[in-house]
Amino acid sequence: MKIVILDHSHADCSTEEGILRNAGHTVDTVQVHEVKDVIEALKDADGAIAEYALFTEEVFKALPKLKIISDYSMGVDNIDVDAAKKYHVAVANNPDYCFDEVAEHGMTMIAALLRNIVGYAEDVHNHIWDWSKAPKLKRIKGLTLGLIGCGQIPRRVAKMAHGFGMNVIGYDPFLPKELADKAGIELVSMEELGARADAVLSHVPLSKNTRGMINKTVFDSFKKQPVFVNTSRGATIDEHELYCALKDGRISRAGLDVIISENPDFTEEIFSAPNVFFTPHAAFYSENAMVQANVTAAENIVYFFEGQHDKVRFVYKPE
């Protein structure tokens, strides 16, 4: 079978290429993203590995030979899964390769905001040695962390937050109470979360239902001027309303690993907001996670064509 690695944010694809070739497949590695380029790159391919490359209905319609897409990441918002179902193309992903890394990154951002670590570091870099320039800080022990979304990653964050002595509340209409109780999360409404939280971590998958779900109504519910962290997908946040909430103080400080643009040119409005720091969609990264992601992306393809479907991490499995 011919497999094409379409796009990748890491420099070396030798791991994936080796796994695929050892299984008897031919492999092409390119770097494309847009629809017309994806179609051209996959015109005679049986399978694809992708990260951000776009798979719309137009792509599926143009590629009758394509049988499977294996995504490097957990999220498959670059793929129209409904269209994949229509054209009977399997979709696989990496559902758990960086749970620990993203949770660690999220908790680190929360603690850094609550202790003004970035602000102090920037001051010292500018030759300012003055602890009193910080915003009013509170002891982390006893503060309340609000989790918007309580999946595997936020539940890991909850465990870390308990280690700091924080109380943890969460909004997630899909999480069974027994799982929440096991993680030490008190399930509440979004309104109650906004009223009680000193820090808020948003981590929800991007879908049609969650796009822009963290909006003006949510920010208006924040009563304690919390710090705010997003480690999931930028498009789950109404970015203009986040900018406004930072400007008028409904959010005291923010840490963002993601914004709506995956390739910002730094003219985006959010970069001019006060009291916010960014990391470059890096929460997933460790060398361990990268190896796991690359191996799983390739093995999804190998197992699929070998008929070992119980080993494929399917998002959608054709009949």
Strand content: 15-25%
Question: Unreliable stretches, pLDDT < 50, 5 or more residues?
Answer: none
Q: Write down the overall geometry.
A: elongated
Mean pLDDT: 97
How would you characterize the overall build of this protein?
The protein is α/β, with parallel strands linked by helices and 319 residues long. Helix content is 36%, strand content 15%. The chain contains twelve helices and 13 strands. The chain has helices spanning 14-22, 35-41, 57-62, 81-86, 99-114, 117-125, 152-163, 177-183, 190-196, 216-220, 239-248, 287-306; strands at residues 2-5, 26-29, 47-50, 68-71, 90-92, 144-148, 167-171, 186-187, 199-202, 227-230, 253-256, 276-278, 314-316. The protein has a seven-stranded parallel β-sheet, sandwiched between helices. A six-stranded mixed β-sheet has the order 2-1-3-4-5-13. Helix 10 (216-220) links the parallel strand 9 and strand 10 (227-230). Helix 1 (14-22) runs parallel beside helix 12 (287-306). It is elongated.
